[in-house]
Amino acid sequence: GGEYVTLGGNEQHDVADVISFMRREKLATKFTIWGRSMGAASALLYVRNYGTDFVTGLVLDSAFASFKELCLDLVTTGQVRIPKVAVRAAMALIRRSVKKRTGIDINKLKPIKGMKNLICPALFLTAVDDCMIPPHHSMKLQERYKGPSYLLTCTGKHNSVRPVLVQDSVSFFIRATFRWPNQPIEPIFSYIERNSPNYVPPLRNGQNPLSAKGSFSKLKKHRRKKSAKNLERGVRQTARSSKIGNTENHAMDSPLKSTSA
User: Fold this and answer.
1) At how many degrees (to 10) do helices 38-50 and 11-24 cross?
2) From CA 9, how far away is CA 211, in angstroms rounded?
3) Is the peptide bond before 181 cis (omega within 30 degrees of 0)?
4) 114-152, pLDDT tens digit by residue?
């Protein structure tokens, strides 16, 4: 990246150097890139500019859609205290300063650009109380993404440790990406959704829980119970995760079950 942090502008080339080195040394041939915050932006910029020939999947935790939009969000939410009337002038000053020092135009830091051309599976992560990079950035990125993707929302803030269930979901996803496209990735997304603390199954009569009588309190109560059950299940599954590839010894309802003969 150089002497200065460029929020993915130059760091994307670091990703390229690492992948090139590992392929040259025959340490690996295919990669699933897991990036968080600036790392997620770097991953997106890398696959956009270098392609996905060697990339089987992406895990993108708290990526920003565009740096300019992020700056406006920080001012709007009070994370950066600048009068709104001075935002444009401040952005222009920062842009000139950063470009002079690093050669990077911050107005061109737009990971969302080119999303419609990416086809490898992607798992987007965001935290509900993230004030640094609000969840709507991940939502926009996932909506624009062309390939198979899923947005997993978890509790916490920008720098919070991700819950055990989220870490398990990422682990399952990464394993599955190395079998894609020979095996579809969609069963993994269904598996992640069913085991998410925020998952609410449809009611028997087909009603949406949010439209039922007393639905909001029932929904919160259901989610608490579901979260506790999933946490217990996640601990058990983690203990057995080393055996998950052995499909002959496991009859568990796992989307990672091999379909090969």
Assistant:
1) 70
2) 45
3) yes
4) 898 999 999 999 999 999 999 999 999 999 999 999 999
